[in-house]
Amino acid sequence: MRLHTEERAIVLYLHVHQPFRIRHYTIFDAGENHAYFDAPEGDDTNNADIVRKVAEKSYYPMNERLMRMIKDNPEFKVSLSITGTVIEQFERYAPEVLESFKALVATGRVEILAETYHHSLAFFYSRQEFEAQVKMHHDKIKAVFGLTPTAFRNTELSYNNDIAYWADQAGYKAIICEGWDPILDWRSPNFVYRPAYTDNIRLLMKNYKLSDDLAFRFGNKAWEEYPLDTQKFVNWANAAWDQPILNLFMDYETFGEHQWADTGIFDFIENLPKEWLKTAGHTFMTVTEAATNFEPVDHIDVPHTITWADTERDLTAWLGNRMQHGAITALYALENAILEAKDEALTADWRKLQTSDHFYYMCTKWWSDGDVHAYFSPYQTPYIAYMNFMNAYHDIKFRLTEKGVEV
Amino acid sequence: MLGWELPPHNSGGLGVACMNLCKALSVAGADIHFIVPYTADHSSIDFMKVSAATPVGVKEVQQSGIAYDSFKFTDTNGYEEWVSLFDYHRMYEKSMDSIVAMGEFDVIHAHDWLTMRAAVRAKQISGKPLVVHIHATEFDRSGGNHGNPMVEEIEYMGMMMADKIIAVSEHTKKVIVEHYGIPAEKIEVVYNSIDVDIYDSVVGKNAYPYFEKMREHGYKVVMNFGRLTVQKGLYNLVQAMRIVIEKRPKTLLVFMGNGEQELELLELAAELGIGANVIFTGFQRGKNWRDMLDQSDMFVMPSISEPFGLTALEAGSYGVTTLVSKQSGVAEVMRSALTVDYWDVNEMANQILGVLNSNDLQAQLSEDVLREVSKMSWQHEADKLMNIYARYDGVYA
Question: What is the pLDDT of residue B397?
């Protein structure tokens, strides 16, 4: 184990996810058909269309770059989290994308993190359901990629002491969260930490300033640092020359979808290892490697849940209004009935409805202020998103009663 | 400023919009002389001068009650005469000779086709710039069909002669461009608005104990207020309510207004077997109007073509969840309103049921609409108009 910082590592972690979006599903559909996720072709909520579109813009070109980065730079490594819902959609709508991820993993230089299969907020509503989904994801990752995850990330990087404690008990070596200033105080996110009340697990915290320079600001022509090139970025990274790690955590879709190809984001990322590795002692590590290579410098206490979202870094984008609360509470209230019904298709649909995106689409935080672009949503309004969701929920209940289960 | 009506002598939203707009304009520094073509007491209005336009020799003009009806003229000798709307227009036009002579002004601002002849005459006599404000077109009033060609001709003339056209929404601007062939550059959008503080709160014993009692028993009330006329798309609302009531029998539909479609709607409801769930209260003002909004779970305005739709903002100001057609101008400024295509009866029913079946959604929409509408003000729109007026400073001098 290395104690000091003669070695410095970039930890690049990319999150891959697509939800099963609910189609325009009316109260007249409830009890008639159960195809909540099958919007007609050309519709804004058609999942096949969306996955294929994002594949063209992001998954294909980025995986090609990642493969080249691995081949050209023997030290380059990357960590990914890939949700069960997106893997299922790759299998159905874009199998070649999944093959290209498998090829990356086969190089042995890619770590895949554990998480809930359905990208859900189950941890906050049902520990039993949460553990079932984490296991489902483990099994899927094992089956598809042949890997057993050793690091954990919770949906939207939601994190608190309880989650860290759970992950520690479950045997994970690492967990990740936002490097949020009120938590870090005077400390830097560029070190390994130990979560409060845990024994073995280590915590990596996102360097949101440098991560968001890529994820949010890269292509913004009004940004004073525009255009950002690799050399400038590495200079910024070198300002923390005495700190061992740089955690660049972001959505995979940053590359090509959030930041389009014409911003130069692909060339930027491909050049990053070359530029970074010019300095002796510079390297790349996966999440688990970094967590086990460096001694923790302090412990981190997070009694209240934080996430990587919005300026508030909390869960209010998912659970901030009464539609969101009502919908998610109603959904989890069906848990016992679902278990009792023992119907595979019904359980699968119920779980797909747990994906956090459904609640995000109901967010009204900035809605009435007219900030249309603050949120990505395939729905015209958060109210319509809620109605579609609740009609699907009503149909789940209908199916339960059809099976003779009390709801 | 040339108008047709002002509250309390108004038949609809036009008078309300003119009054509130003028109040905000006067705060913004405008000195307004408002002309109405009838004689009535407007002494409660202290922020502008209101005059009756009566041609030489006419002592008094009285409306028969409804805007689109006939009018009683009394001449200086006490002789009374009933005239038609079109004759009335000509008299309004003739009266401009004496109105223009009453004093200096910078801009003529005229509201809707009813004032167009007078407006053009005033421009001819004075040479001052003419701003024509379109609150509704004949195309809208006829429910998107061919309206009265004589009215369309007057509208067209007024818009052609105008130096600037104000439309109350992008929707209306589009109608003016597409159906009247007016160049888009000539038109600017100034939205209608609302100042919630001028609306009285609901107090005391509610005027509708029936609705109170039914709601205690799980009924929900869907309502519409305004003229019962083809433009408003109410036929589709009754059709949608048949579907709603089939799924949710404890639902009432209330129409609070008058209009030529009243009997037709009543018959339709009976024919569809929901006669017992559809209630007509007639036109209401004041406490009765407020109390009905207080007893309503949802306001639905499925207009076929609605230039603006101030009633949706009024309902929203009482926290009533609103569903408006996508063919309504108000949908452009009201993000917390649900929207639907006026012809999509199934989706209308789906959204009504979505609200009525979810207290969470109803409360959310109510909270959001109240917050949104509370932030609105005519002042902002008046400032836009003042900027438009200012462009004519000196041009015609």
Answer: 45
* ipTM of this predicted structure: 0.88
CA distance B318 to B289: 11
- pLDDT category at B30 given cuts 50, 70, 90 is very high
**Model's pTM, two decimal places?**
0.91
Q: Which residues of A touch B368 (CB under 8 A)?
A: 364, 367-368
Tens of pLDDT, residue by residue over B307-347, are 999 999 999 999 999 999 999 999 999 999 999 999 999 99
Calpha distance A300→A194 (Å, rounded): 6
Residues of B in contact with A392 (CB under 8 A): none
Question: Are the beta carbons of B234 and B261 closer than 8 angstroms?
Answer: yes
Q: What is the CA radius of gyration of chain A?
A: 21
Any CB–CB contact under 8 A between A32 and chain B? no
The residue of A387, A388, A395 whose CB has the most chain B CBs within 10 angstroms, and thus the best one to mutate to test that interface, is: A387
Range of the domain at A101: 8-300
Span A86-105, average pLDDT: 98
Active site residue A344: no
Q: CA of A26: which chain B residue's CA is closest?
A: B350
Q: Based on the domain organization, do A296 and A321 belong to the same domain?
A: no
Of B335, B346, B351, the CB nearest to A370: B335
What is the rounded distance in angstroms from the CA atom of residue B153 to the CA atom of residue A50?
50
For residues B362-382, average pLDDT? 95
What is residue A370's predicted lDDT score, i.e. its pLDDT?
53
CB atoms B364 and A321 under 8 Å: yes
Taking residues A20-35, report their average pLDDT. Answer: 97
Is the domain of A261 the same as that of A335? no
Task: Answer yes or no: do A136 and A189 share one domain.
Answer: yes
Residue that terminates a domain, selected from A273, A300, A327: A300
The residue among A274, A300, A326 that closes a domain is A300
Asked if residue A309 is part of any domain, the answer here is no
Subunit contact A26:B371, Cβ cutoff 8 A: no
Q: Print the SS3 string covering A278-343.
A: CCCCEEECCHHHHHHHECCCCEECCCCCECCCCCCCCCHHHHCCHHHHHHHHHHHCCHHHHHHHCC
User: In this predicted model, what pLDDT tens digit does every residue of A369-407 receive, in sequence order?
Assistant: 555 445 689 999 999 999 999 999 999 999 999 999 988
Residue A75: inside a domain: yes
Judgement on whether residues A201 and A122 belong to the same structural domain of the protein: yes
User: Tell me, what amino acid is at A100?
Assistant: S
> In terms of domains, do A79 and A168 share one?
yes
Q: Does A387 touch chain B (CB under 8 A)?
A: yes
Q: Is the same domain home to A326 and A181?
A: no
Catalytic residue among A156, A178, A257, A289: A156
- Show residues of chain B in contact with A27, CB under 8 Å: 247, 350, 353-354, 357
Residues A133, A158 within the same domain:
yes
Peptide bond into B183 cis (omega under 30): no
Is the domain of A271 the same as that of A369?
no
Around B330, how many Cα atoms within 13 Å sit in the side-chain half-sphere? Answer: 31
**Mutation test of the interface with chain B: which of A25, A329, A368, choosing the one with the most B Cβ atoms within 10 A?**
A368
Per-residue pLDDT tens digits for A221-235: 999 999 999 999 999
Domains in chain B (CATH in brackets) are: 13-193+378-396 (3.40.50.2000), 197-374 (3.40.50.2000)
Residue A106 domain flag: yes
Q: How far apart are the CA of A385 and the nearest CA of chain B, in angstroms? A: 11
